[in-house]
Structures are given as structure tokens and as C-alpha cells.
Amino acid sequence: MSDLVLVLNSGSSSIKYQLLHADTAEVLASGLVEKIGETQGGRITHECGDRELVHDGPIPDHRAGLRQAFEMFRETGLDLTTVGVGAVGHRVVHGGEVFWEPTLITDDVVRTIRELSVLAPLHNPANVIGIESTRELLPGIPQVAVFDTGFFHSLPEAARTYAIDAKVAAAHGIRKYGFHGTSHQYVSEKAAEFLGRPSSELNQIVFHLGNGASASAIAGGVAIDTTMGLTPLEGLVMGTRPGDLDPGIMPHLIHVAGLDLKQVEQLLNRDSGIKGLSGVNDFRELQQLIDGGDAAAELAYDVYIHRLRRYLGAYLVELGAVDDIVFTAGVGENSAAVRADALAGLSGFGIEIDPARNETRAPGVRRISPDGARVAVLVVPTNEELAIARAANDLVTAS
Ligand code: ADP
């Protein structure tokens, strides 16, 4: 049985893909299809070893984009129909209350993922298009859906329940689901491996800080709380999303500020967070503005850190004691300042950072707390593609 897996992350206007060996993590090829359905700027960037192929031109839809990407695989000597792909793993954002384990895709499964679009209107429809196109282009290869919500299926009732009219919540599936689950699970397992202890013995706090950002509290390998909710808007301050807000702001925006629903959605998904406060959403640009003395950028940074610390405090209490704190994703892996500021002044809780270790870049998992500190603070590079590939490969091999 081949451990070669094609992993696809199909978004509304882009598709990220990777062909890799699930066993060894060796990546044979990877790429990005951008600006699908737009009249200008369509581009496919395909990397295979040290070769990079670029295709510029309009990409009318996902199917056309994938077809072209598969052609680029062929050009670099990897015909996906004959090279021995054992499974295709799809990142699917929302599994609702139906799916949490990696799931072999059938017509029924596709139908249900489509129905779950009410819970993730920006994501699930694009995931379905990616799945349908791949099933057409690679018939006969088993396809597996891996759900971003899956790891948080275990949230205790008190953590996942919103205190609104229970009948309304039940009728419309309104509860905390959580997202980035594949990453939280992957890095927490990697951290346990690094510490040489089973996950089942550890209390862990994970900060996944990318463009989207979320934190989780994990007890004995099981998630007991997370910051994202019914949608990926709740919780931490993100690149363009606000995280937690007073719910009363929504009617205020409509009745007092005069925004319509579409404008509110635009505000919450695209024009808030770091971008809303500072004008830029990329953390490196934010840092440059701060270095230049920009007061709005400084405030954005302070709000971001304040929110991280608020959840750190909450999760310390929920867990009672914590063995390790993990930072991952673009900001978490790269910004020494964010890590230092998020954990400053907490030695009373056994949480300390070694400044030299924190500033030193190195590949792989690394400890940034001093030796002997009560709480291990780790930087763990996330690898959602590998986690999806392994989940897909495990399922296909077992069935
Ligand atoms: P996503 O997968 O959610 O799109 P990533 O995990 O790639 O996001 O993270 C993107 C974020 O990481 C951006 O805000 C980017 O500025 C930030 N980032 C990347 N490299 C660095 C760095 N060297 N220092 C600070 N931030 C960085």
C-alpha cells in the first residue's frame, strides 16, 4: 500500500496542495492556485524539488485550476493517475456535530458537508468544490475528509454551550465548535514527543498564531476549551478578525452606525483585528510601523497581547496546572517579541522564557524556557498537511 498522499486545502478563491509521503514526511511537490474565478491575476505556482513552474492566466473555476496543476505535476514527471497516490486528504473546515474523525468520502458524505455550509458559508462550499473536482480528475483513488473542527469534538458541555435561549441554539446548531483542530492536535502531540512523555499525562496550552489565531487548553490529549466558536471569528485578535466582542456591538453597528448585514460581515471578517486597528494585517508590517513609532500600530499590538494573556490566564485556571505552553504558526513560530510579551511577569506561575533561546531561530521543535523551569515553553512548527496526510493514510490503510 502506497503512503503517498495528495493533500488539498481548497478555499473560496485558492487551492493549496502538497504531494507527500505520510510515513517519512518527504514532500515531492507542492503548489498554490490563486485568484480562481477572477478575471486578472490567476496564477499557479508549482514546486517540485528545485524546479518551480509558474502558470499565469485566468483560472475560471476550481476544476480548471486543479486540471492545470495536475498537468504541471505531469510536466515534472509525476503523473498523479499513475504515480501511486494511495489517498487524497482534504482539509474540510466544518464537520458540525456529524463528523469529527477523518472520514472516507462518499456521495453521502459530500452531501452532508455541503449541508453543513450553513455553519461555514465562507469555507465548506469551497471545500466541496475541491472534493468534487478531485473525485472527477482522480477517480478510483480513495479520498478522505479531515475536519478542522474534529479535535474539539471533546469540548465539555459547559465550555461549548453559549448562554442563549437553549431552544434557538439547538434548532440552529449554535454552539462552540472550534477550528484549527488539526494544528492544535499535531503540535500538542509533537510537544509531548519532544518532552518524552505521553500526551495522556500532560496539561497543555497551545497558541496557534497565524493570520487566523486560536488557543486551546488540552488535558491528557483531550481538548477541554478553545477560543474559536461557532465560527472562526471568536477569541483571539487576528489579522483581520476581531475575536471576542460585546455581542451588543452588532445591533449597535446596524441601528446606530447604519451598516447593513453585508457591511457588518465585511467589517468582522476583513476589516477588523490588527488591520482594523493599524491599517496592516501582516505582523511583519505591524512590527515595522511600531519601530517607526506609529501609535495605532502599538495599540494594535497591545490589544493583541492583552487578549492572549487573558486566555492564558483562563486556561491556566481551567487546567489547574500546566506542563507546557506551545507557540505555533506564522506569528507564534517567528515572533520572539509576541512570545516574550505574552508570557512576561509570570514566573510566579512557573512560566519563564530564556531570552537567548527565545531569540535564536532554529528548525524543528525547540524549548525557549530555561532548563528546570516548572512549565516547558516550546516553539513547535505546525504541519497541517502532514497531519492530514497521516490521517488519510491511516484510514485508507486500515479499511
Ligand atoms: P495562515 O496559515 O493563517 O495564513 P500563517 O501561519 O502563515 O497564516 O501566518 C501568517 C502570519 O505570520 C502573518 O501575519 C505574518 O506576518 C506572520 N509572520 C511570518 N513570518 C514572520 C516573522 N518572521 N516575524 C513575525 N511575523 C511573521
Helicity, as a percent range: 25-40%
**First and last CA, distance:** 12 Å
Low-pLDDT stretches are none
CATH architecture of the largest domain: 2-Layer Sandwich
Bin the strand percentage: 15-25%
Which hetero compounds are present in the coordinates? Answer: adenosine-5'-diphosphate
Radius of gyration: 21 Å
Can you write the helix and strand succession as a string?
A: EEEEEHEEHHEHHHEEEHHHHHEHHHEEH
Keywords: ATP-binding, Cytoplasm, Kinase, Magnesium, Metal-binding, Nucleotide-binding, Transferase
Pfam families: Acetate_kinase
Site (Transition state stabilizer): 180, 241
EC number: 2.7.2.1
Descriptive terms for the model:
eight-stranded mixed β-sheet, six-stranded mixed β-sheet, 399 residues, binds adenosine-5'-diphosphate, 15 helices, single chain, 14 strands, alpha/beta, Nucleotidyltransferase, domain 5
Describe the structure.
The protein has 399 residues and is of the alpha/beta class. The protein has two domains: 4-147, Nucleotidyltransferase, domain 5; 197-384, Nucleotidyltransferase, domain 5 (2-Layer Sandwich). Helices cover 38% and strands 19% of the residues. An eight-stranded mixed beta sheet has the order 5-4-3-2-1-6-8-7, sandwiched between helices. The chain has a six-stranded mixed beta sheet with strand order 11-10-9-12-14-13, sandwiched between helices. A hairpin with a 3-residue loop joins strand 9 (203-209) and strand 10 (213-219). Helix 1 crosses helix 3 and helix 10 (283-291) crosses helix 11. Adenosine-5'-diphosphate (ADP) binds at residues 210-212, 239, 282-284, 329-331, 334-335.
